[in-house]
Amino acid sequence: MAEKIIAVSAGREITETEFNEFLSKLPEQQQAYVATEEGRKQALTQYANYFLFEKLGYDKKYDQDEAFIATMEAVKRELLGQYALTQEIKDIQATQEECEAYYNEHKAMFVKEAKATAKHILTETEEESKKVLEEIESGAKTFEDAAKEYSKCPSKAQGGSLGTFGRGQMVKEFDEAVFTAEVGKIIGPVKTDFGYHLICVDELTGGEQSEFAEVYPQIMQQLTTEAQNKKYMEVRQAMIEKYGLEFK
Q1: Which pLDDT belongs to residue 44?
Q2: Any idea which architecture 112-205 has in CATH?
């Protein structure tokens, strides 16, 4: 089936396939616009203009200007260098066996981040904290109501809720108490530099080992990148030994 011709610029036929390829290489922020009818028409005009001005360049022999030739040489040097490197590393990819071995040797790296969802009540003294705890345990007040009434932390407006946070985000004493707590059980008073806390952990997640299948893509990318970088350095060193490199 013959290619659909959508424009002819300076005698150059522009096919729908090549134009779509041109569109696909535009920056991501332009993709939504060129997907519209108006945007597509404007992009086609831009693409057609390349051939008009290319023709102008040949007509006026701008392609023979020294400045143009120097620019083309610089562009060629950069593109050829990039292409050569790409060719050298294109077939380098970590194997599944290598990834599995890395996973088994570095399992500690693939433990899911521990997170907690908790609420607290902050008081200035231990006595105040114990008194609030008694009220909650007696059923006189819920934890949330007690937080709104007694807590010195801005979280009191949310019933003491601190939302969800990861291990190490809170001060040491608070962090250790939360991540060793029994879910749903009030603990404290816990002393920190801020005062005394009553803490209730609503949920604890993470801390377990990730399965190999979960982290395989991550390991594959890491090992492949490392192998490609190693190849790059080997090729570079070989070229230096063959042709030399000296900084003045």
Answers
A1: 97
A2: Roll (3.10)
